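Hey L., structure's done. Input below.
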Amino acid sequence: MAIRTSTLTWDNLTSAQLDDFDTTLYDQIYNKNIILKHMRENADMYDGGVNIHIPVEYDKMPSGSFDKGFETITPTDTEFISDAFVKRVNYYSQIAITQSEQQDNSGKNQILDLMARKYDALRRSMEFYLNNGLFSDGSALSSGTADFTTRLSGLNYWVPNLPTSGTVAGINRATYSWWRSQYVNEATSGVAGLTMYKIQGLHGKCTDGVDTPDLGVTTQLIFDKLWSLADTKMRLGTAETADLGYSALNFNGTPIVVDKNCPADKLYFLNTKYLKLKIHKDGDMKVGPWLQGPTQPFAFSKVLTFTGNLICTNPRYQGVLHTA
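Output:
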């Protein structure tokens, strides 16, 4: 890591005065975690269990017509409920401090509260990795590999480029078309070939009556292309995103925002009525007690944990347009 160095000559002036010290710690690492912010505001809590189960209705009841009422109707039952599931995932971030650091960073000579800054960095670290994980393909979901970027059942798991094959949450998409998300392949034309008509094509696929996407997520490059195609009214965004503190394009009432973690070639339309962050009630950014090392009695650590996963109860209302 590059650290600033300087040489100070202790003459009359430098020995007789203090330099100005800005007490704000300026973040050089973290992004703004837009999709995580949206998902946490609409998250569902659960009590326990190794897996998170999703009951799904996939068939209609036996039906028909009759004439005068003397027809014979044979009682028939239909299996119409199945079950999808994903594993819960555990994430952690930690901080550590020594007794000497606590003692040194105290009293009148303290300029920055080191512990307060470490707590802030602890939460921001967890939010950064969780937001990154929300775009995961879930490839390490079953293996148990402790990996931030592929462990969560993220958007690339629920809303892949080609959703016509593969088993998702225990249900085979090649067999059951009702479990497929929507997609538009623009790999041939790329970002330069995007038009409002093509964006509408994906939006329309994700819409069914009053069920319509309530969030669009994309990259800065694709956002800039859409901005160039948009009219003034669309560029005003929505009141909801303005209240949350970020700019958006308003596409058919759906705010489209930039998330720095979004994969380079994608625009997602999401219906978060059916796409939820499921969080254990005791694992929602929970900070544990100070732990003292058995062989390092003057060192202490704290761990912040998250337990849960992203679930989708209706993939057909989620979609992705990919340009590569």
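The radius of gyration is 26 Å. The mean pLDDT is 83.

-- N.
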